[in-house]
Write a sequence for this structure.
């Protein structure tokens, strides 16, 4: 459950991160690939080495989608409908991996925001990313 | 037997040498209680945990955070024998404290976030994070090992 205050906080934070979407996104992905090598199996078609163009563009895509959803969290199912279909029928990423990326996203945010990534902000964003992942996997079965 | 690369050993000892358990411990435990409020079930004797301010200002939380974080010292000093080092603590968490071992994993995640916030991206690189998380995962596994 997200309170009004939390939704506002989440929206503000992701708005601020939008200009640096490719830095945030690529950092989170790199962390995930380093700590959870199994996740690399979904990217055999891309060059995911540090600094690669693919890594930046893919990281950017992910962060922008998260930021888009944050603009109106109550409409998450509507906003994510196309991505739901993509993940369910084409990508078919095992949903346990969403948790791994979410954790690495939190670590990236902690690294870049430092003290500003307060326990309250951490809680709100963790809840949001869980909700995002749940919606994303809704069409799986 | 856990195998550590030289790089992993270096990352773990480098991070540990710069960690102040009195600072990181309380922050990590506070995050656990705030981000995953159901974990408060284990701390009925800690007094008021009903609001964010209450948790942050709670001396028992701070003290306990320091104790738990300090408990990692023996793992850092015994990287090749973590399972045995934590056998007794594992029994205690199972039989006396009745803590679901899943909570160890959750606390480990909170510790990593606090360490990341403290050290920033140039120290807490993806490589360091991998080593640190592997270290915590081994500790978590050892703590759950004696449950039956």
């Amino acid at each position: 459950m997200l309170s009004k205050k939390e939704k506002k906080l989440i929206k503000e934070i992701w708005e601020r991160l939008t200009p640096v979407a490719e830095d945030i996104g690529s950092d989170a992905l790199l962390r995930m690939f380093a700590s959870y090598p199994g996740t690399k199996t979904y990217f055999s078609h891309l060059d995911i080495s540090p600094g690669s163009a693919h890594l930046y563009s893919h990281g950017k895509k992910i962060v922008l989608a998260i930021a888009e959803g944050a603009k109106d969290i109550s409409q998450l199912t509507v906003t994510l409908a196309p991505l739901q279909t993509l993940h369910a029928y084409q990508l078919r990423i095992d949903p346990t991996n969403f948790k791994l990326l979410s954790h690495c996203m939190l670590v990236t945010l902690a690294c870049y925001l430092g003290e500003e990534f307060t326990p309250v902000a951490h809680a709100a964003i963790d809840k949001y990313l869980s909700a995002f992942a749940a919606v994303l996997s809704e069409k799986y079965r | 037997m856990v195998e550590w690369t030289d790089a992993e050993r270096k990352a773990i000892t480098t991070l540990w040498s710069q960690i102040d358990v009195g600072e990181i411990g309380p922050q990590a435990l506070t995050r656990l209680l705030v981000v995953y409020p159901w974990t408060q079930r284990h701390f009925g004797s800690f007094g008021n945990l009903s609001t964010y301010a209450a948790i942050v200002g709670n001396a028992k939380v701070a003290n306990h955070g320091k104790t738990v974080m300090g408990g990692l010292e023996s793992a850092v000093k015994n990287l090749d024998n973590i399972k045995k080092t934590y056998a007794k603590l594992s029994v205690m968490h199972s039989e006396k404290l009745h803590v679901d071992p899943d909570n160890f994993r959750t606390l480990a995640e909170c510790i990593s976030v606090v360490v990341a916030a403290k050290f920033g991206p140039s120290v807490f690189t993806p490589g360091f994070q991998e080593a640190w998380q592997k270290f915590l995962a081994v500790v978590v596994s050892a703590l759950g090992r004696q449950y039956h």
About this structure: The mean pLDDT of chain B is 96. Chain B is about 70% helix and 0% strand. The first helix of chain B runs from residue 6 to 18. The interface with chain A takes residues 30-31, 34-35, 52, 56, 109, 112-114, 116-121, 124, 126-127, 129-130, 133-134 of chain B (CB under 8 Å).
